[in-house]
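Thread: quick sanity check before group meeting

JM: Hey all, I'm pulling together slides for Thursday and realized we never actually wrote out the predicted structure for the chain we discussed last week. Dropping the sequence here so it's in one place. If anyone has concerns about the input, flag it before I start.
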Amino acid sequence: MDQQQRLTGGEAVVQSLVEHGVDTVFGIPGAHNLSVYEALRADGRIRHILCRHEQGAAFMADGYARASGKVGVCLSTSGPAFLNVSTPLGTAYCDSSPVLCVASQIPSEAIGKEKGYIHECRDQLGCVRPVTRWCARANTAGEIPSIMREAFAQMLTGRPRPAAVEIPCDVLDDSADISFPQAFTPERLQPDTVAIARAALALREAQRPVIWAGNGVISSNAVAELRHLAEQLGAPVFSTVLGKGVFPEDHPLSAGSALVHPLAQNYLKNCDVLLAVGTRFTQEEACDWQLTIPEVLIHIEVDPEEMGRNLEPTIPVLSDAREALRTLRHEIASATSDAPLIRHAEVTELRKQIIADCRTLAPAGMQLVESLRAGMPREAVVVNDLCMGAYWCRRLLDCYEPRNYIYPWGFCTLGFGLPAGIGAKLARPDRPVVVLNGDGGFLFNCQELAVAVQFDIPLVVLTFNNASYGVLKPQQTERYGHAHAVDLVNPDFVTLAQSFGAAGARVNSWDELRTTLDHAIQSGRPTVIDVPLHVPLPVMEPGARALFESQDGTPT
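JM (edit): ok, ran it. Output follows.
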């Protein structure tokens, strides 16, 4: 324990964040958390990004966490502000992202009494309990350091997930002699030696092994270990959407992230061992759990609750991904031949066939993907919202590095893209950041463009503008024969961007998108690009293929 210091509760919050390596927080001050803001001002070691809505602040924290690999932190005042954070916390929870919200509360003696205090919520912590791994209240200033440490322990042990801490305003204002425990340092879960031995034997005996890698590999910083093992086995690597970049998608063994495509599913049927690492086999990734899995399924997973939840593994390996892959590689190296299986040609052919099929069914979709890839440098970070353009890219836009592809996958949260992109750019200032969103989703949190301008955060925001909630329109038409309540009246997005002080542009062709995107990245300014071009329904989405094919197999 460190020597005690006389501090306010607000100062204890800030010092706890500093102790855990936090250098950036996102938030909006309120009447009940001013003590925290005074401590931030006086301390000066943490950069504060002033947001326009608490939802935007928490999405920025999430984007920061996903792009950096560190905890993302947002600050909130009480009541409605804290509840505004619940949707981003749910997004972080579903996608295994370590986001911490530190919120104020009404005075201690009034909590739960419904006396009519401003910002009063009957059960504030109860509102976020379903969307956090852990949440707690500090009832005294002296408790703050230990509770903050526990929040970091909960977020960083095993599978990353969000946490929330609430502190009554009188506790934040109070002073006490406070000591700080040693900052939490996570330990990696080691694999069981028997399970590793079984997995190694199955892979040594496999004739056609294949790997399916998810976000758990990225969270574990196990990218190098995965690549070494794949090359050692000569095993093709598929990735999940959240796992994009876990394996360079121009590597000869990269099978991409399009396992939902029928050709990829047929390829999987011809494999004899599937090594799944850090993936949960969720509904869309596992095609409503109708995938034909090879006879032997090895599942490396750090969360015991996920083991066997959706697919029962032949060989479960409960472990941190990096530790398991390191040990597995060593076990295989001691007994494997010098000539690993070479399957580069068939993987290359598989990817060519998938692209050719998508181009035949919906050429505009492939033009979109290819224009984006040509308009961005290799190292660009792509942050997504929910829209047709993002749906195409999550399966077919190549990504080459971990943490370079950010997607609100599990919660499917509209409004994520712009604020998460701001957080990602602050985490990775050396990388171009491009946000993909639709017109509807952009308007959920377009006010955060003011943050990009105020703090000179140069990201590029593409707005696919079809004047509707375009993902829903074809679903309605398919089910009911018509669409209803999905058409939008939009502002002029170029003028809107300019009114904030950002740059605005509009494109009229896919070729123009490529050149305009490149120019916007080079400009070093926050830029919104309006894209009023038709983006077809992605052919790999559930049920979409039938909409593209007539009985004779031609696009409809």
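AS: nice. Residues 344-361 form the longest helix (18 residues). Residues 193-344 form a domain with the Rossmann fold fold (CATH 3.40.50.1220).
JM: adding both to the slides.
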